[in-house]
Design goal:
Keywords: Membrane, Signal, Transmembrane, Transmembrane helix. The chain contains 9 helices and 30 strands. By secondary structure, the protein is α+β, with helices and mostly antiparallel strands. The protein folds into 4 domains: 103 residues, Immunoglobulin-like, CATH 2.60.40; 136 residues; 110 residues, Sandwich (Immunoglobulin-like); 112 residues, Four Helix Bundle (Hemerythrin (Met), subunit A). β5 and β6 form a beta hairpin.
Length: 590
Amino acid sequence: MKISKYISIIILLLVTSMASAQVKFEAKVSKKKLGVNERLRIDFEMNKDGDNFVPPDFKDFTVVGGPNTSVSNSWVNGKRSYAKTYSYFLSPKKRGKFTIKQATIEIDGETYKTFPITIEVSTAVDQPNAPPGASEIASENIHLVAEVSKNNPYLNEAITVIYKLYVAPDVGVSNWREKDNPRYNDFWSQNIEIKALNQQKGLYKGKEYRYVVLKKTVLYPQKSGKLKIEPLVLDINVEVPSGRADIFGRQIMTKVPQTVTAGGRTIDVKPLPLDGRPTDFKGAVGDFQFNVTTSKTQLNATESLQAKIEVSGKGNLKLFELPKLTTPSSLEVYEPEHKENVSTNLNGMRGRISDTYTIVPQYRGKYPIPSISFSYFDLKTESYKRITSDEMVIDVLEGPTPSANNSENSAVSNTKQTVRPNTNTFAFIKTSSNWADIESKPFFKSTGFWSMLLLPFLGIPLAIAIRKNKDKRDADVQGNRIRQANRLARKYLGEARKNLGKKEAFYESLERALHNYLKAKLNIETSDFNKEKIESLLIERRVESTVVLDFISILENCELARYTPITQVTMQNDYDKAAKTISLIDKQLR
């Protein structure tokens, strides 16, 4: 009996020691799916105290709170319960799927690790989880609003989106940055430059606020139906009253980070009416004037004149094609030179576009140029209008005439000549020769002989130099990478040129060329591409801001081309602009 009693005690002690030795160290999150304007809490819990706690690298998140440490000790029914927690509050930097990697800690000389956790970040939500304390005060006193000029425009009618930040009088804002830019899918868009953030007073939901205009964008819808404008999301440092005062009685302010969003907007785009639509309608919407002019109406053959087709006014000037010039086949006409002088403000595009044709007549005579018509949809009257130019006559004063040439040729062909036979029919055959002996010299020891003998020896130093240069070039990994990317950029630019007229293939090749160029020049990978990083890296390398903006605008055009109709002229302009911008960056890069 005593032996069995001792065995029971030993087994009980072993079970107790094994249970006490079982260490738990795990990571728990408040949620695995959240909006980009929400916050996430992560707790690293352990049931036994440890040392050298190492949190994971929260590279895809901003730590807005923590680490906060909490310890609990309790005895229940004679059993000790211990728990220690490290807590962090995280704000996601952008949308996507991100993995929070392992945390580590040493407990009783052994290292323990948590399991990785995958977090999915979606677009901003209307009601984000409310942070405690000062953050709650900040969220109630600061608002980001997107004001849309018109919610039901026509197809290709300009609308504006103005983003205003409203701040209550008793809170302040120290700085802000754009966390998530809206993507205007199915819109042609252009941002309007804001030179200074001027503070103004206004009402928001019946209460007085101060506000600043942060962003202005002009949009032209490119398809009818319900189109969504994605929200703008900002990270802001807000100063809120802490409820405490300093020794002078002044309110002590507390800085808290806050994420605000303007919320998504839906635009209901009306299609253009089918009734009364002209057959030559090319998509022009607005209020326009149309002119067809020539530099001269009288000239001589082989001289040149210019015929200009021009549309001016207010509307979607960059989003339609001009009508074509038709001329008699006897006039030689060259490809037109396209010019745009268009400015964009909150009222939309305004200016003029033109195609200038060079015409060279070959023969004398009078050549009529038929009238040309231009149709557009007038937003004021909500009806189609057509403008027709007058017929013009080109008077070629001097030069050959086709009829005269034909008569001369027929006269020559009808003239008969008398053939007189030659009595010496074989006079062209020579019956005697004047050959001379050729002096022959031996090849041995001649100039050619010594040249061929010494040439291989002279080529040895040259071959050595070439080999050294090749080895040096092969060892230059960075240089080879730059040369390879430059070759790829030229290759894809060449592909883009071949694909002019094919929208998807052209812009895909153009985007690949720009990406390969950046990979070489800035030494960054494709996964790191974003407009903000590209802009900052180029400016750091002393590239002019105007050139950087041109480069960014080309990338935006490549993205935009997937959703909007693009003309041949626009593709040619983008290609020329890309080649010019790459050349300028090469010259300015330091």
